Each structure stands twice: as C-alpha cells, then as structure tokens.
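The instructor's notes for this session suggest beginning with a concrete chain rather than abstract definitions. Hand out the sequence below and ask the class to guess, before any prediction is shown, which regions might be ordered.
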Amino acid sequence: MKKKILIGLMLLLAAFVVYFNIRVRIADPDISVERFKNIHRVEIDSNFYSIKNNWLRKNDKGLWEMYVEGSPIELGVYEGKLGKELIYQQEEAFVSQMKKIIPSDFYLKFLRYFIAWFNRDIDDYVIEPYKEEIYGVSLSTSKDFDFIAPGYQRMLNYHAAHDIGHALKDLAIVGCTSFIANQNRNDSDMVVGRNFDFYINDAFAKDKMIAFVKPDSGFQFAYITWASMIGVVSGMNTEGISITINAAKSDIPSEAKTPISLLTREILQFSSNIDDAIAIARKRNTFVSESILVSSAKDDRAVIIEKSPTQMDVFSTENSQMVSANHYQGKLFENNKNNIKNIEESSSFYRQQRCEQLLSQFDDTVSVLDASSVLRDTRGLDNRDIGLGNEKAMNQLISHHSVIFLPKKLQIWVSTSPYQLGDYLCYDLNKIFGLHRIPSKNQILYQPKLTIPEDTLLHSKAYAGFLRMKEIKKRIKSAISDDKPIENADKLMLEMAQSNPNYFYTFELIGDYYLHFNNHLKAQENYEKALSLEIANKWEEDRIRKSLEEAKQ
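After discussion, reveal the predicted structure:
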C-alpha cells in the first residue's frame, strides 16, 4: 500500500514538473531569420562595427553610440550582432550580482522558477513588433546563461527586471528624480533634466550607450540605454517628445503585464504630442506603479502620467517648473495608502523639495548648464551636508545615466562616467538622423562646443573620501560574512569615519562591524552617531534602531 502511494506521489510530481515546464515555456515568435545567417558585422576599428548602414562605436569620452534602422526583426538582429560582447558583459554583470545578493544555489533556483512562473504569460502583453525585436537581439546572446532560460525568454524577463525589482525591493535602492523647467513660456526653451538612479554594480554601469533608432514605422528616436535593452527609460523622438520614468510604490504583483519600459518605448516611437502619449498609456496594462514624465515641444508643456496596475491619472501644473520623484501628485492617488506611506517614509518627497529649492534659485529661466548643476547636487535641504551617496540628494552617486533634453531644439545632453560627474555630451537629433551614412573613424558626433565640463567634485578631497569609503565598506562586509576580524580594525574604522563623515551609512557600517565582533560599546556609539545624521528613509532608520537595541544588550 505504501509503495503504491509513493509511486502515485512520484507520478504526480513528474506530471507537475512536465506541466510546469510546458506552462512556463515561451515560444519564439513565428518569424523567419534565415536571411540573417550570413550577415556579419564589419570591424572598422577597435570598438567600431558596422552592418550595412547600421553601426556601433565607442567615442573618445567612453560613451557607446549606436545607430540602427529597419523593421523590428532587423533592428533586433543588428543590435545583437553589433553589440554581442556588450550583451555578454551586461548579462554577466547582472548574473554575478544576483549570485552575490543570493549566494545560495537553492534560493537562486527558487528565484529562477519564481520568475519563470511569474512571467509565464509576459509575451501576451508585449506587442508583436517588440517581441520580434527582442527575438532578434536574443539570437546573439550567449548559451552560457541558458541555465536561467533560453535566450529569447531571458531577454523578455530582463525587460521586466526593472518592474519586478522595484516591486519586490519596495524602492529600497531606487530613487530617480526628473524635472521640467521653462514650460508655458514664450521667452525660453523648455528644458528637461533627469537622473536615472538604477544601480546593479559598477560593471553593469560601465558601458552606457546612446542609441539612435530609425524604425520602419513611427518616429525616429534616441534613448539612453545598455546593450540588449530595447525598452526606454530616458529618451526623445524627432517630434520633440521626451520621456522619463520614475518608479512609484507598488503592491507586490501577482503576474506580469506590460513592462513599463516597453510601454514608454511605444509612447516614444508613436507619439507626436501629449494626447498621443496619454492614449497609448491608457491602452496598456502594467504590473507596477510608475510616474512617466512626458514633455512635448508642440504643446510646449509637460505632464506626468501616473500609472498603477489598476488606475491612471494625468498630473500637470500651470507653473513653469514641475518635479517628478517617486510618489504620485495627482488627485486620483492622494488618498492611496501606498502613496501616502511612500511620501511619509521614503526619500522621495524630500528629494522633490530639494529639487524645487534648487530650481527656485534661478531668477529667470533655467539653462542647460543650470539643469546640470541641479542634477549634480549632492546636498540636502537648505544646502545641508548630508554626506556623499545619500538617497535624499539629487545626485546619489549611483546613476546609470543623467540626461538633459531641449525638446524644441531636439538636443540631448548625456552624462559620461562616472555617474553624472563626467562631461555632458550634446547630441543634435537633426544632425544625427541627417547623417545618412556610417561616420568616419575620427568623426565626432556630439557637439563639442556645447559640452558641459566634468564636475569639479570629481577631483575633490570629498570624492576621494567617498571612493575610499566604498573600498573600506567591501572590507567590512567581507570580514562580517567570513567572520574574520580585520587587522588593526580600530585604525581602519577611524579612517572610515573620516572618509565620509556626514553620511549616516558610514557609521552604520562601523557599528555593524563592532557589533558582529562583540564590541557592543563601540557599536552603540556608532549607531547613535548614525541616528544623529540625515537618514535616507524610514526603513533604514528602523534597521539602525534595531541594531542599536541589540548593541545595548
């Protein structure tokens, strides 16, 4: 009898495994790629490749530039073939970070199965052209990562990574800010600024790219991205529509819908005014909450499309300036419990206030140079020193990219590494899309005379201290995880305290070290010091208070 029950359970388990694998498998799009098999890229120079009229190159400032044109499948194939090494590096950086965050093989496998089940129907919410483009990219992915999922399925999942990540992490590591200035004015050009504070690791942030796309339908557009990403987080089209996205607080979703970056890609590709953008946003179901800042040269104004999985609002103002952080501002969500909690407990409202404070210092209009100074600001309200790297600052020193748009002039300024501290390079979309040929090896595509020079912070003692803090942080984390005390620890902890002395996390880390190695008195001193400084959000304050109570025991 027991044997029959055991056999029955094994058969049931086998049936479930078969069902699961069938249910989560996402079929490739039904499109022939035979004609691309014999198409190979040409290496023009080191870090410079072309296929037909499509090209990818690294400029003299370290920023990758790419131009692609054609049908959806052609766009994807060319993007993949041109940047196959970059795709590998990005995927390797992403996977290595996941292994670092989740060192357990068991939990990694669980996460893989969870994402596979969660995203089992994601292709139902991606429009056909984007499925084809993603499929084209996936043909150049490495089989080294097939243990996660087949190439096409992985690429689809990665486009939902931003959504899943900010829903599960509950905004703990993401705090983007964007703003519009000079709108509704006849005497100046509207300017849009944005910091995309999405950080995985240094390797992932290394190879940022500006891509120029000429699709066979819709409008030409440019966006700031990384290899393999066809979704848009920051971009502008040739109609003068610019778009940026900022995560808002969400409930944990139960299943995938349209990834937000693919919705914004659709808006960018097919909108010529704000009404177009709103209409497209209403058509799509998303599975997380997001603020989408859309500016329009034709309308000479901007709106924030506030979209949740079940509702949508459009927020605007008659003022010349408007700021978008990580909370909603419209009437529809003013009593929403998630939004209220987010305003009260996260860094979002504080950052909005700081951005408004910075913009208000300009008496007349806000220039592109003014916008860059706002995006680079590392201080808190009323110019207080809150330490470098604080999430409450406009510049948290984690940005994947920072960008400034002048929609009427079709000009984009893109920051070069590190973060937004390097030069901002200006690209003129009229000139780029008017090129009609592969640029020569030494041809400069950005406008050198319009370059915004690197931030003076880059060569300061304060920034050197910030970098030293990051180095010591690694040693502290390693010592705790390996349970091995640091030699001359007191000396190193003193150096740590001096490296970034107004940042709460500096002292929390020191406290963590001493607590782990049972020096409760020094742990208590450092936790109390951390609590006396400007803490980024409520949950980090709660974490420090919990550690302090442990140190007191």
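Then share the key points. Residues 462-552 form a domain with the Serine Threonine Protein Phosphatase 5, Tetratricopeptide repeat fold (CATH 1.25.40.10). The first strand starts at residue 42 and ends at 45.
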